[in-house]
Amino acid sequence: MPRGRYSLHDPHDHTPLGEEHFHCAPGPSGWRYVSQTTTPSGDPAGSVDLALDDLGRPIRLELHAGNWQVRGAALDGVTWVRTDPTGTRATEGNVPAHAFTGTSPAFLIATSRLLRLTPGSPATRVRLVAFTDPVLAPRTLDQSWALVNSEAHATDNGPLTVDEYQVSALDTGEQHVVHIAGDVVLAAPGIELESLESPPSAWAP
Fold first, then answer.
1. Spatial distance between the Cα atoms of 72 and 79, rounded to a whole number of angstroms
2. Which domain of life is it from (predicted)?
């Protein structure tokens, strides 16, 4: 069960945004990721709880940021309920999208698992609902994912396969690279893996 810490920063000007302390593990029906986020000063900022089924679909998502909360799942596309800080009212949303995304590295792993790309295959388009910190406002976006390289690296615990993805935002044309090993993000814009207490988990075939 990988456990570790990511540092988060603004991908454009590198302003520190805080840290995400996480653990994740495959289970009998899929994969689960749980984390606590902190501000740059170390104060609690929120949490992420994401569970996928064995096909990579989000069967449960719970996000907290400040006093805002989102609960969602793959249902008729993706469906969610967003609760305001006072807790007096909630707004529901539904979009014909494939999955969710946001600032957490969990969403990069989830999208890569959902698409199951192979090196050299054509880029695949995916529609996602992003929840934007700090108020978890929903926004629908389209991305293109391509697995451009998959390379095995020797480690003390055996070979570690690192997948390199090129991700393109279809509304702006902006492109960036994401490196993932198993169920851990090694590097991505705004994300750095600072510590890892155990090796990434390998996905079951």
1. 6
2. Bacteria
